[in-house]
Design brief:
The complex is a heterotrimer. By secondary structure, chain A is of the alpha/beta class. Chain A contains 24 helices and 27 strands. In chain A, helix 4 runs parallel beside helix 11. The radius of gyration of chain A is 27 Å and the shape is globular. Chain B is mainly alpha-helical. Chain B has 2 domains: 128 residues, Formate dehydrogenase/DMSO reductase fold, CATH 1.20.1630.10; 142 residues. Chain B contains 11 helices and no strands. The longest helix of chain B has 31 residues. The two termini of chain B are 28 Å apart. Chain C is of the alpha+beta class. Chain C is built from 7 helices and 10 strands. In chain C, strand 2 and strand 3 form a beta hairpin. Chains B and C meet through helix 1, helix 3, helix 4, helix 5 and helix 7 of B and strand 2, helix 2, helix 3 and helix 7 of C. The structure holds ligand MGD (2 copies), iron/sulfur cluster (5 copies) and molybdenum atom. One ligand MGD binds next to helix 16, strand 10 and strand 18 of chain A.
């Protein structure tokens, strides 16, 4: 769901094809009939943005038909946990949870806590919004729980109540999915989820790019926990990550608020005491985050080496402090508003790829300077003389004051390095050709930029410059190209012990400064001095888990939380599904994969009083990153918009929320400003002007904002022009001619596209309402060989507050035959 | 390089009914030849007919007619390769045709035939001019006379031995159409070129040739059934009309007034020649039309089972 | 070791493949083609095929339209109603290519000998010998061969990566195919595999129309060296339903031509001799 795997991940899709040949079934729930649907055993068209209603319907079905995997659920999830009596559900407050603060537009999550204490999430907004620190749950089972599942405030009962109205009829009316189809999906999934069988959910950005994106994913996690599909082979919730190395980029931290290995960047509100920070963030005990200090100190040692000492808290204060939301769209608005003056763009094309392209280009025009490092002179670099605004005459190149530096980058085949793929698998690649001309790798650029800055600051005595000057900035350089050694960088990331030897496991990391590791989850990638990411033993020559192909973080583990593949006593749930299990004779966990559990921890282990971190979890708690060691059906923290996923309409929707009075996610991130107008949504005056749902997506033939494909003739010829997809019915209604032109408009902008009339774009029937959809690939811009208008020009800025992702999968628009006006009206 | 945009783009997306096709796009390729080719079919065919006249007239003792026929044939034999070379683009490419002898390729055989035909005719002419003995001239002329009728209709084999539905469908009859037309054209060119009183044989050839040509064309159309549609539609259809009108008018004029009036003979001859040229043009053009619409190919291969209107089907 | 030419061997036997080495070919299984076009692109890259731009066609996701001189593989996208339930769409994809026919019309008709049968049983055009006569273009029953107008009108098609086979590598398109929809190997083996696969595919109600196309030695061209598993009639993929090419037809044709030539000769003779009487 929410992924077009065959088109966007064709290479990974071969495994789906193989599974199907072995009898596996593929269900594709997607607003469009795509190349994935073509391969699927069942395609279920759904209205974009309505997945929580659909998935909530599944939860309802599983609970009401008692199809959950009871033994698993009771033991491995927080179903039994009792929640604070102050907690009120959206059923009580018609679309709100308790704790809503209208003024700040955020929730106070204190009433969402477990009865008996406060708990921290293992990921997400771990610290903020910060609950009052009235204690942290640690020891063993949470204090208040009811294994009979009958307590009215236990998570199980709350969950039932929360989804009680998500019936098949409701699914049909909200999602446009006929009941029989929905029930077919529900039965197939439930029949395939038990001791003997597992079901996987696969998603990508069809789920994330919504104002409720994180909650889409949460709902599937709830389903998987109820059905016992987590931590087991063939189960899980699989995110298909985007760019080839986007997983690596996330791990090593490209976001403003995380450090490598998902350690939070301290905020200005945080204590400047390292120990206290680690206590606040990691929790005093319960789960592996209890070792945060060891991970963080090792990171600081990797950054600052000998200059990181106990005396200066290993350089903790060299780290920057977050002052607020500095996510990408905030920065864009900062440029528009003039408080961001310079911008360095590496490997990104926001003028095309980011929502509200017009606003982005306006932002770029307000800059003093801009650096773009890319393979081609993309739209983000050419905005000042080649953009919709210059073409329409609205902007003249002479009037743009931004100084643009374009630096040519070397592409992946022109450099060594590793990619971390969607399965957390690091794979090393060797340079195939020398980069041409002045093209240089990003590593080269970053290294020499750092070297230059340090050179300029060398004489500085300012305290603020110490962070830069004290950095370890010494890598062996290739004598010919001057490139720093990528392997050496990986060694540094993997980590070293006291005598400089390469570490084998993050378990060896220490908080005393004796170890260093640039990213604790990558620790061991270079164990024993061997680049484990460069292993390429063929699958046929090793076990089916293929541990000797590349290296997966953490510790080359291929299935996370695989302790859950055995029952609480450590026995496999079934012979067929035997994976990682307890071997009493050997006194350890065994199986074809690396156990995701302390290796010799007995299943009947009970933590002694005062135990911390993983030692504070009993031997039957598989989710070892969680403070309570279980999977969360109810999320007391970590998500800013509710402990249970709740159906809300997108910012712009042609229909009203049938479930709650509250139409949209109250905690979504909106920007009400004149240059970011929203279309009136259902129920607001003027909404009839934008009667259609529009959604954006990708094609196999192009890549994202086009920099890597629109300049290549072979790919351009396969999809030579921007187009839109409409159903024959909509084409008829609006007089759109196949192969002709259409103009699509929103409050932000007007674009044109060639028309592809196709029955693959279904007309959705919601009760007696008919909803037409307009499908828009978002790859195009004005540069390159294959050109066209950018779909992103149509979209507003409105974000999921958890992760600051834009809603580009569901919005409203109008479509008319013919080309857009050539000169934009101002 | 911008290729032609397929017309499928303007079609309704989900046409139903049969025969089915891929967006109405062609299945076999249309011919890659250029305008010279149908003219070559005409010049080669006419020259072939004339060469037969030249040697047969020698036997029947009409030396003057024979020589005229030979000279006219020679003109055709000179123009033909020029046309082919122009189609191929470069002279040495024609020589490449003679690189191998390929019995399975009508084009290979045809090239050798044309080469043999042209050289024997040329040699015969030279021999005649130089005054070599009659045997020599006669042998050379005879060679050309045997190759001539082959030259006149190997092109029908060439077209028939393709995947083109209309050519392939008419493949056993087309040689007769071409033969008849060559005969008529040979006669007609003699009518135009020579004095009326000498032209009895020529006039008979026109009439007989036209009858063979028209009758076998009709037969071919009938055999082709629905596949013959291109002969009624579009450019090919117009050329068929032109061909019939000119050929019939030419033959009529020649058979009625051709023996008395030189003007009538010239006009009738010209009409017949035009008709013969139009025949090659229409056959050639029909090949394009037949290849362009996959219906013909699918129909021809599926037979009646997929007649239009059958089934509710679907969909490309 | 395969594809013994059919019983009636034509009198003239020219480079028609008769065994020798192991005949290599393709089995393209359209039931697992995901339409990614990697094959199309890999082929163009490996073989340095010139760029084409056919523009936006509006025909589903197909903008290259057919196999031709500049697209030796071509992926067809067929949108149709789902046949078993009648509700909803089905989207079939298939990567078309030269069939490397057992009886190859192109090879037989080429007057220059530019086309030959390789030691792998494949049909290859030598572009340095081709003179652009265009005969193969009209002869191929599948519309595969095409002339490349620029620069000089010579004909091009899939070589079954002759250069790669010679060094023991598999063809570029097969290598690039992520789902193994394109399977390369000894033809006989592929045929067996295809039979099995067909049984598998037919189990699915929506694929009841599955069939092999070009696997049989008895079909109109003596079997393809590159055959297919299709899920619907060939014509909906732009393929001829019952392609024929029989060299024996040629005898018939020459027979007709000889009679017609005699008619011409006799007609002329008759016209001439009447006068005498
Ligand atoms: N060829 C190719 N491959 C790519 C990329 C590319 O551009 N081209 N990009 C890469 C990147 S960066 C990424 S992030 C991934 C993205 O991979 P995907 O997420 O698979 O890509 P999209 O096409 O954006 O969207 C997926 C599907 O979500 C559907 N969808 C939209 N809204 C909804 C909804 O509300 N609910 C449901 N259930 N489905 C919805 C769309 O119709 C679409 O089919 O692909 C990566 N791979
Ligand atoms: N409407 C809409 N908008 C979307 C999405 C959507 O589905 N719908 N998807 C979103 C998603 S998931 C993503 S990931 C973004 C992608 O959007 P962007 O990241 O803005 O777009 P890309 O085209 O992937 O930009 C990558 C650039 O990096 C360059 N590049 C490649 N290799 C290198 C290298 O080694 N070094 C350097 N310096 N440059 C290199 C490429 O030429 C290319 O221009 O788009 C987002 N925007
Ligand atoms: S482009 Fe690269 S990452 Fe994407 S599917 Fe192909 S091989 Fe995988
Ligand atoms: S498909 Fe056409 S080009 Fe290929 S071998 Fe057969 S006849 Fe020749
Ligand atoms: S175009 Fe070339 S390959 Fe084709 S038949 Fe003519 S010479 Fe042979
Ligand atoms: S075998 Fe080689 S030449 Fe033929 S289509 Fe595949 S890649 Fe192209
Ligand atoms: S590479 Fe394979 S899956 Fe992709 S289009 Fe070609 S045949 Fe189909
Ligand atoms: Mo992405």
């Amino acid at each position: 769901m929410g992924s077009n795997m065959a088109e966007c991940h064709p290479v990974a899709f071969q495994w789906i094809v193989e599974a199907q040949r072995k009898g596996g079934k593929l269900i594709h729930v997607d607003p469009r009939f795509t190349r994935t649907s073509a391969m699927a055993n069942l395609h279920v068209p759904i209205r974009a943005g309505s997945d929580i209603a659909f998935l909530g319907g599944l939860v309802h079905y599983i609970l009401e038909q008692e199809r959950y995997f009871r033994d698993y659920m009771v033991a491995y999830t927080n179903a039994t946990t009792i929640i604070d009596e102050r907690f009120l559900d959206t059923e009580d407050l018609d679309g709100f949870f308790s704790g809503w603060n209208e003024e700040s537009g955020t929730y106070d999550t204190s009433s969402w806590q477990y009865e008996g204490g406060v708990i921290h999430a293992s990921a997400g907004e771990r610290g903020a919004p910060r609950p009052p620190a009235d204690g942290i749950i640690i020891e063993g089972a949470p204090p208040h729980s009811d294994p009979t599942l009958e307590h009215p405030r236990c998570v199980f009962q709350l969950l039932r109540r929360h989804y009680s109205r998500y019936t098949p009829e409701m699914v049909e009316r909200v999602c446009g999915v006929p009941q029989h189809k929905f029930l077919e999906v529900a039965e197939t999934i439930c029949d395939n989820s038990n001791r003997e069988r597992t079901t996987a959910f696969v998603y990508a950005v069809g789920w994330t790019q919504h104002t409720v994106g994180v909650q889409f994913i949460r709902t599937s996690a709830i389903i998987q926990l109820l059905l016992g599909n987590m931590g087991r082979t063939g189960g899980g919730v699989m995110a298909l990550r985007g760019h080839a190395n986007i997983q690596g980029a996330t791990d090593i931290a490209t976001l403003f608020d995380v450090l490598p290995g998902y350690i939070q960047v301290p905020s200005v509100k945080d204590s400047s005491n390292l120990k206290q920070f680690c206590l606040d963030q990691g929790g005093a005990a319960g789960g592996y985050w209890g070792n945060l200090e060891a991970y963080l100190v090792s990171l600081l040692k990797a950054y600052w080496g000998d200059r990181a000492t106990p005396d200066n808290q290993f350089g903790f204060d060299y780290l920057h402090r977050v002052t607020g939301d500095h996510s990408t769209y905030q920065s864009t608005l900062g440029m528009v508003d003039g408080w961001v003056k310079g911008f360095v763009v590496l490997g990104e094309n926001p003028a095309v790829g980011s929502a509200h392209g017009g606003l982005h280009r306006k932002a770029l025009r307000r800059l003093d300077w801009l650096v773009v490092r890319d393979l081609y002179e993309i739209e983000t670099a050419s905005f000042w003389y080649d953009s919709p605004e210059t073409q329409s005459g609205e902007i003249r190149a002479e009037d743009v004051g931004t100084e643009v530096f374009f630096l040519p980058a070397a592409a992946n085949a022109e450099k060594n390095g590793s990619f971390t793929n969607t399965q957390r698998l690091l794979q090393w690649h060797e340079q195939a050709v020398e980069p041409r001309g002045d093209c240089r790798s990003d590593l080269w650029f970053t290294y020499y930029l750092g070297a230059k800055i340090r050179e300029k600051l060398a004489a500085s005595t300012e305290a603020r410059d110490r962070a830069l000057l004290d950095l370890t900035w010494d890598y062996p350089l290739d004598p010919k190209s001057g490139d720093p050694s990528a392997e050496e960088v990986l060694r540094e990331i993997s980590g070293r012990g006291p005598d400089g030897q390469l570490l084998a496991s993050f378990g060896a990391l220490r908080a005393d400064g004796s170890t260093s590791s640039g990213c604790w989850i990558y620790c061991g990638a270079f164990a024993g001095g061997q680049n484990l990411t460069n292993r390429k033993r063929p699958g046929q020559e090793q076990s089916w888990v293929a541990p000797e192909w590349g290296w997966a973080w953490p510790l080359n583990r291929r299935v996370l939380y695989n302790r859950a593949s055995a029952d609480p006593e450590g026995k496999p749930w079934s012979e067929r599904k035997r994976f990682v299990y307890w071997d009493e004779a050997q006194g350890k966990w065994v199986g074809p994969d690396v156990p995701d559990f302390p290796g010799d921890r007995r299943p009947d282990y009970q933590p002694p009083p005062g135990a911390t971190a993983e030692n504070a979890l009993s031997g039957d708690r598989p989710f070892i990153m969680q403070a309570d060691g279980v999977g969360w059906l109810f999320a007391p923290s970590g998500v800013v918009d509710g402990p249970f996923p709740t159906h809300y309409e997108p910012q712009e929707s042609p229909v009203r929320n049938l479930l709650y009075e509250q139409e949209r996610n109250p905690a979504r991130q909106v920007f009400r400003r004149r240059d970011n107008p929203y279309n009136p949504t259902a129920g607001e005056p003027g909404s009839e002007r934008f009667p259609f749902v529009m959604s954006t997506y990708r094609l196999t033939e192009h890549h994202t904002a086009g920099g890597m494909t629109r300049f290549l003739s072979r790919l351009s010829q396969l999809q030579p022009e921007m187009f839109c997809e409409v159903s024959p019915e909509l084409a008829q209604e609006r007089g759109l001619r196949p192969g002709g032109w259409a103009t699509i408009s929103t409050e932000r902008s007007v674009i044109e596209a060639r028309v592809l009339v196709t029955a693959r774009l279904p007309v959705l029937r919601l009760g007696d309402r008919v909803v037409h959809q307009v499908g828009l690939p978002y790859h195009w811009g004005s540069r390159g060989l294959s050109t066209g208008d950018s779909a992103n020009d149509l979209f507003p800025l409105v974000l999921d507050h958890n992760v600051h992702i834009q809603e580009t999968k569901a919005a409203t628009c109008d479509i008319q035959p013919g080309r857009r006006p050539r000169v934009a009206s101002r | 390089m911008k290729a032609e945009r397929p017309s499928g783009g303007e079609r309704q997306m989900v046409p139903s009914g049969k025969p089915r096709s891929y967006y109405g796009l062609p299945i076999v390729k249309r011919p890659a030849w250029t305008w010279e080719v149908p003219w070559y079919l005409f010049t080669g065919g006419t020259a072939g007919g004339l060469a037969a006249v030249s040697i047969l007239a020698r036997w029947t003792g009409e030396a003057k007619l024979g020589r005229r026929a030979r000279r006219l044939a020679l003109a055709g034999a000179v123009i033909s390769p020029v046309l082919l070379i122009s189609d191929l683009g470069r002279p040495e490419r024609f020589l490449n045709m003679l690189r191998v002898f390929r019995p399975t390729s009508p084009m290979s055989l045809g090239s050798w035939t044309l080469a043999g035909f042209g050289s024997s005719l040329g040699a015969a002419e030279m021999a005649d001019i130089v005054g070599l003995p009659n045997v020599v001239v006669g042998t050379l002329e005879g060679t050309a006379g045997i190759l001539g009728p082959i030259l006149a209709n190997y092109t029908a084999v060439l077209l028939g031995d393709t995947a083109n539905p209309i050519w392939r469908g008419g493949r056993t009859i087309l040689p007769f159409v071409f033969s008849g037309s060559s005969m008529a054209a040979a006669g007609a060119s003699l009518c135009v070129a020579g004095p009326t009183d000498e032209g009895v044989a020529a006039r008979r050839m026109v009439v007989l040739g036209t009858i063979i040509e028209q009758a076998s064309f009709l037969l071919m159309e009938q055999r082709l059934g629905p596949l013959a549609e291109p002969y009624h539609d579009g450019a090919a259809g117009r050329l068929v009309k032109l061909h019939r009108a000119s050929s019939l008018a030419g033959a009529t004029l020649i058979s009625t007034l051709g023996g008395r009036s030189r003007k009538a003979a010239i006009l009738g001859g010209a009409l017949t020649l035009a008709g013969s040229a139009a025949l090659r043009q229409c056959v050639y053009r029909a090949g394009f039309q037949s290849a362009a619409d996959p219906r013909y190919l699918v129909d021809s291969q599926r037979g009646a089972a997929t007649d239009p209107g059958d089934g509710n089907g679907s969909v490309t | 070791m395969t594809a013994a030419p059919t019983a009636r061997r034509p009198a003239v036997s020219l480079p028609m493949w008769q065994g020798g080495g192991t005949r290599m070919g393709f089995f393209t299984d359209s039931s697992i083609c995901i339409g990614c076009k990697a094959c199309e692109v890999a082929c163009k890259e490996w073989n340095g095929v010139p760029d084409i731009d056919t523009g936006f066609t509006g025909n589903s996701y197909d903008n290259t339209s057919s196999v031709g001189a500049n697209s030796w593989r071509h992926v067809a996208f067929v949108e149709r109603q789902r046949p078993d339930t009648g509700d909803g769409v089905q989207w079939l994809m298939n990567s078309d290519v030269c069939k490397h026919c057992t009886r190859a019309a192109c090879l037989d008709v080429c007057p220059t000998g530019a086309i030959f049968r390789s030691e792998f049983g494949t049909v290859v055009v030598q572009d340095d010998i081709c003179n652009g006569c265009g005969y193969c273009v009209v002869a191929c029953p599948f519309g595969v061969l095409e002339r490349r107008e620029a620069p000089d009108g010579r004909a091009f098609k899939c070589t079954l990566c002759y250069d790669r086979l010679q060094v023991g590598d598999e063809p570029a398109c097969a290598k690039a195919c992520p789902t193994q929809s394109i399977q390369f190997g000894p033809l006989e083996e592929l045929r067996e595999r295809a039979e099995k696969r067909l049984e598998e595919v037919k189990q699915e109600p929506r694929y009841a129309g599955a069939r092999l196309y070009g696997d049989s030695k008895d079909d109109g061209v003596g079997g393809f060296g590159a055959f297919f598993l299709l899920l619907d009639d060939p014509e909906v993929y732009g393929l001829p339903p019952k392609p024929v090419y029989r060299r024996t037809d040629l005898a018939l044709l020459w027979g007709a031509a000889s009679v017609a030539a005699s008619v011409l000769t006799l007609g002329v003779l008759g016209s001439l001799s009447w006068r005498r009487r």
